[in-house]
TrEMBL record:
Residues 12-86, 97-190 form the Ig-like domain. This is Ig-like domain-containing protein. Gene3D superfamilies: Immunoglobulins. The keyword Cell membrane applies. One of its GO terms (cellular component) is neuron projection. Residues 250-259 have a biased composition (Basic and acidic residues). Its main location: membrane.
Length: 288
């Protein structure tokens, strides 16, 4: 028969001995293993330190334990007559908190939400907090949601900041404290600028329906008047009169010129009228 279920608490660095006994006929053997199937480190005088997944014997000696050896151990008693019986022993090891992450930076947009998380190893880990540079986070009056997820020796602190304001940008500190010490980590929330482009559009005007119009046809008549024969003859008669007057005038001028030129008295009178007539005709043609 096995003893009662035990929860044993130790501090990191202690030497721990777990004892398990059972009775039966024939005498049962005892085997140790972790409930989660992980390996563990044992020590004995003949073999020294060894990492095993099972150990046979009534006493399980763990030397200078640390938080990795925390957990549930099973003491299993069995003989040739089934069934085997077991007892569960939970080993709890107290140790100072340790931060499992470096400082972080997280970007966010104004008005959005952001989720922050800090990972610690600690036992116990009951005392957790979030704060800013000056005071506790709740004194900033923001829309915050805080939570903690715990395993045997791990504590994950959660913080959700909703509807981010300008004052919400900056450093956030998360911490875990117990009787053996404390640990702190920080997360910086910075603003992500969103560029917006505005496209100006011209107003659109919806045309009003217009009344149907009747097409108008304009008829144009062009009349071309041809010159009459009488007008043409009248202009020709005036031209002939002008021609005779000019001819008589030039003849007189030619006679006067011939009398003054004694040297050329024999040649000029016969030729001048002809020359003057040619010049007169040319002059009249130029005028027309």
């Amino acid at each position: 028969m096995l003893g009662r279920a035990l929860i044993q608490k130790w501090q990191e660095g202690d030497n721990v001995t777990l004892v398990c006994s059972a009775v039966g006929q024939p005498a049962p053997g005892i085997q140790w293993r972790r409930e989660d199937g992980r390996t563990f480190t044992i020590y004995n005088a003949t073999q020294g330190f060894a990492t095993v997944d099972t150990y046979n014997g009534g006493k399980l000696e763990l030397v200078k334990v640390d938080y990795t050896q925390m957990g549930a151990y099973l003491c299993i008693a069995s003989n040739d007559i089934p069934p085997a019986v077991s007892k569960r022993i939970v080993l709890k090891i107290s140790f100072a908190p340790v931060s499992r992450q470096s400082n972080q930076m997280v970007g966010a947009v104004l008005g959005s939400s952001v989720n922050l998380a800090c990972n610690f190893h600690a036992y116990p880990s009951d005392n957790t907090s979030w704060h800013r540079e000056i005071s506790e986070i709740h004194e900033y009056g923001g829309d915050y949601k805080i939570g903690v997820t715990r395993t045997s020796f791990e504590a994950i602190l959660h913080l959700t900041v909703r509807n981010i304001r300008p004052i919400d940008f900056g450093r956030y500190f998360c911490s875990v404290t117990n009787a053996l010490g404390n640990a702190r980590s920080s997360i910086t929330v910075y603003e992500i600028k969103v560029e917006t482009t505005t496209i100006a559009s011209s107003p659109t005007t919806t045309p009003l329906p217009s009344e149907p119009t009747t097409p108008t046809t304009i008829e144009t008549t062009t009349t071309t008047e041809e010159p009459t024969t009488t007008d043409a003859l009248s202009s020709n008669e005036i031209s002939e009169q002008e021609m005779a007057s000019l001819f008589n005038e030039n003849s007189k001028r030619g006679a006067e010129a011939s009398s003054r030129r004694r040297t050329y008295s024999n040649s000029v009178p016969s030729s001048l009228p002809n020359v003057s007539l040619v010049a007169l005709v040319t002059f009249i043609l130029a005028i027309r």
